[in-house]
Design goal:
Blueprint: H1 10-20, E1 25-28, H2 33-37, E2 43-45, H3 46-62, E3 70-74, H4 79-90, E4 94-97, H5 104-114, E5 118-122, E6 124-125, E7 128-129, H6 130-139, E8 146-150, E9 159-160, H7 161-165, E10 182-190, E11 193-200, H8 201-215, E12 223-225, H9 232-245, E13 249-251, H10 257-266, E14 271-275, H11 276-283, H12 287-290, E15 296-301, E16 320-326, E17 330-335, E18 348-352, E19 360-367, E20 372-376, E21 404-412, E22 419-423, E23 428-431, E24 434-437, H13 439-446, E25 453-459, E26 463-469, H14 473-482, H15 487-490, E27 498-499
Parallel strand pairs: 1-13, 3-4, 3-5, 4-10, 5-8, 8-9, 12-13, 12-14, 14-15, 15-16
Antiparallel strand pairs: 1-2, 6-7, 10-11, 16-17, 18-19, 19-20, 20-21, 21-22, 23-24, 25-26, 26-27
Helix pairs in contact: 1-9, 3-4, 5-6, 8-9
């Protein structure tokens, strides 16, 4: 009896390029990595990356992590992140990505909700001790058995992965490579609260294909990824797009404009993947003269309701592809035309590339009965967003739902029939990639003391920014720390409406 062919995994895609061009450039670290993490930048070929992945994978196996168990990762946008994700998959593990801006309470909740067996982090990022954050969170997560870190001065009890990379690989185990197996868990905030969102390999690959085909990225292209990787969009736009193209992946830890421009020129990057507002800002600065190697720009919109009102793209040598992000639910892309303006997005199935007749269907966009945007398709984890069972109806079968309601308010434009996204989900704030319920602001503000202020202001680059004012700034930082706010947010608090 013939067995159906297994769909590819991320490691399968890596192995294909490794076999074809083992000595080609694969991974390039940020030029300012020394400032960000204290490590010197690495430059790795596919063969060198494979040896590192094999060593890390063997360490995870030798540590006793069972196949299909969860390993949590909280790392910056550096080579170590890519190596760890691929090593975990090679060892048959599921990766849970933890954003750098998360608070201690959220780290602990995520570790407990996913029953993670291990956590991997960096000793410091931008001067903040993430090793200490990981150790404290692991102490409150009963399932954690191993805490690993890159960098120096790791706390007692944390295994050094730099030492692992410095020695030959050890024991490995055979893992069935099947794209239908779980690959990652990311985390979303919806009106119902904190929500883990698991995904198989094929879902991640579908997201990467939707972007790479719509942007028309050539095989073997060199990519610059300047988007935080700790989400579905971050992994799909960097890791999946890179593995599908089979070129080199340069990484930039967001953001230093001068360093980013220097990296693009030094590595002769052809594709830039970055937050859309940053891409538009670069496009206004004579992109053709300053970064002549660019041929494609992918702009990721964390606030997709802002796309229609955005400025025209004025760098025709490197067309812009708008990618609409809807939390962890899914995404779709639309490449701008010759006039540089956003194109109309029609409801119904959409191909990749969008305008090409007969192209493969990347997903479907629909308007729900509630006047919100719905998504369905290979990349959309419908089961993870299933509505809660009504109280008192636990024995009653609920009608099946084959789409995810993103919560974004939307309507149809009468003259054109296009979808118009008008507002984000109510009750949810986003500061960069960090999403939280607006009710949390009230709790945080109460801890700041009498006369203090903490509010979310609209921000074109990140959706919102937190701004605060307190008469006793030291007490404000202490109160926010007691609440478990990440030090990157606490230390940025200012007493005169400065951004947090």
């Amino acid at each position: 009896m013939n067995q159906p062919a297994a769909s590819p995994t991320l490691d399968t895609l890596f192995q294909r390029t490794l076999t074809r061009q083992p000595h080609a450039a694969a991974l390039l670290d940020p030029l300012n990595k020394g400032r960000v993490t204290g490590h010197q930048p690495r430059r790795m070929s596919y063969a060198e990356a494979d040896r590192a992945i094999e060593a890390l994978s063997a360490h995870f196996v030798e540590s006793g992590l069972p196949a299909n168990s969860v390993i949590a990762i909280q790392l910056p946008n550096t080579v170590e992140f890519v190596l760890t994700v691929l090593a975990a998959h090679r060892a048959g593990l599921v990766v849970a990505v933890l954003p750098l801006l998360w608070r201690h309470a959220e780290l602990t909740a995520a570790l407990n909700r996913t029953a993670a067996r291990a956590i991997v982090t960096m000793s410091t990022v931008d001067g903040v001790s993430y090793a200490d954050l990981a150790m404290h969170a692991a102490a409150e997560a009963f399932s954690i058995r191993h805490v690993c870190g890159f960098g120096t001065d790791l706390p007692e009890g944390m295994a050094s992965l730099d030492d692992v990379l410095a020695r030959p690989p050890g024991t490995t185990r055979a893992v069935i490579q099947d794209g239908r197996k779980a690959a990652m868990i990311s985390f979303d905030v919806t009106a119902e609260g904190f929500r883990p969102v698991p995904r198989p390999h094929f879902s991640l690959i579908a997201g990467g294909l939707a972007m790479s085909l719509e942007a028309d990225i050539r095989q073997g292209a060199s990519l610059m990824a300047a988007f935080a990787p700790m989400s579905f969009a971050g992994l799909a736009s960097s890791l999946a797009v890179w593995l599908l193209s089979g070129g080199a992946l340069a990484l930039h830890h967001p953001f230093e404009n001068d360093v980013l421009e220097q990296q693009i020129n030094e590595h002769e990057c052809e594709v830039l993947i970055a937050p859309a507002q940053l891409a538009l800002r670069l496009g206004d600065a004579d992109l053709a003269a300053r970064m002549p190697s660019l041929r494609n720009v992918i702009g990721l919109w964390r606030a997709p309701e802002q796309v229609a009102a955005s400025d025209a793209w004025i760098a025709p040598h490197a067309p812009l592809t708008d990618v609409y992000l809807f939390g962890e639910a899914g995404l779709f892309g639309a490449r701008r035309g010759e006039d540089g303006m956003p194109v109309a997005v029609m409801p119904g199935p959409h191909g990749a590339p969008r305008e090409q007749m007969g192209s493969s269907i990347a997903g479907e966009i629909l308007l729900t009965p509630k006047g919100t945007l719905g998504l369905r398709g290979a990349m959309v984890p419908i089961a993870a967003y299933a509505p809660p069972q009504p109280v008192g109806e636990t024995l009653t079968a609920q009608p099946p739902r084959d789409y995810v309601d993103t919560g974004y308010a939307a309507r149809l434009d009468r003259p054109s029939g296009a979808i118009c996204i008008t507002a984000p989900p109510s009750g949810i704030m986003a500061v960069g990639g960090y999403r939280f319920l607006s009710n949390d602001l009230q709790e945080w503000a109460r801890r700041l003391g009498q006369g203090a202020l903490l509010t979310a202001l609209p921000d074109r680059l990140s959706g919102h920014r937190l701004a605060g004012r307190a008469q006793d700034n030291a007490r404000a930082r202490e109160a926010l720390s007691e609440l478990g706010l990440n030090p990157l947010m606490v230390e940025a608090f200012r007493d005169r409406s400065g951004p947090v």
